[in-house]
Amino acid sequence: MHIHAEAPRAAVFVPEPPARVSPNGDGVDDSPNLGYRVVRPSSVTVTLRAPDGSTPVSTTAQQVPGTYPVAFPGTSEAGTAAAGAGVAAGAWTFEVKA
Question: 5 near 14, Cβ under 8 Å?
Fold first, then answer.
């Protein structure tokens, strides 16, 4: 997974996601823990791009300082692989801009 963070004067911090995800429901590396931290009030755009170029996550919002999780497609709210969920294999891109 590729990660990109673009923020003037460090308005947002994005930790490095895991290098490999295996969303097959076996409980091992099924979902990355995606998220970011806003350090001052900012307009934040979050995009998660699938290998086919689609964007299952694409939001822009004014956000206050805090930590914000981003759910990976095909996972439950608990972050585990959802039953029967198909997740495209290949390189995903997680991008956060503030």
Answer: yes
Q: What is the pLDDT of residue 44?
A: 93
- Where residue 2 falls (left for φ over 0; alpha for ψ -120 to 50; beta otherwise) is beta
Distance from C-alpha of 96 to C-alpha of 5, rounded to nearest angstrom: 5
Instruction: Tell me the per-residue pLDDT of 79-97, one tens digit each, with 9 for 90 and over.
Output: 444 444 566 777 788 888 8
Are 50 and 92 within 8 A, CB to CB?
Answer: yes
Q: What is the pLDDT of residues 25-37, one digit of tens each?
A: 677 766 677 889 9
Q: What does the DSSP assignment read for 27-46?
A: SSS-S--EEEEESSSEEEEE
Length of the chain: 98
At residue 68, does pLDDT exceed 70? yes
SS3 content of the chain, % helix, strand, coil (to 5): 5, 40, 55
Count of CB atoms situated within 10 Å of the CB of 12: 23
